């Protein structure tokens, strides 16, 4: 997911450089959404990994 966010960011930068404002705006929006979705999934997986490593009660 982070890979796709970076790809859309690169597309947005190239499109903005070439003067395609609408495409650049759309690609930047998609990259932003994918990046924040990646962050949410990363934090959830990090928390579930930490919760699963509890030592069993004696």
Protein architecture, described:
There is one protein chain. The protein has 58 residues and is an all-alpha fold. The protein has a domain at 2-40. It has two helices and no strands. It has helices at residues 2-18, 21-51. Helix 1 packs antiparallel against helix 2 (21-51). The radius of gyration is 18 Å and the shape is rod-shaped. The chain starts with a helix and ends in a 7-residue tail after the last helix. The mean pLDDT is 86.
Features:
2 helices, rod-shaped, 58 residues, mainly alpha
Mean pLDDT: 86
Give the SSE order as H and E letters. HH
Number of helices: 2
Oligomer: single chain
**What's the count of strands?**
0
- Unreliably modeled segments: none
The largest sheet is:
none
Query: Which value, in Å, is the CA radius of gyration?
Result: 18 Å
Global shape: rod-shaped
**From the helix content, strand content and strand pairing, which structural class follows?**
mainly alpha
Share of residues in helices: over 70%
How much beta, percentage-wise?
Answer: under 5%
- CA-to-CA gap between the ends? 41 Å
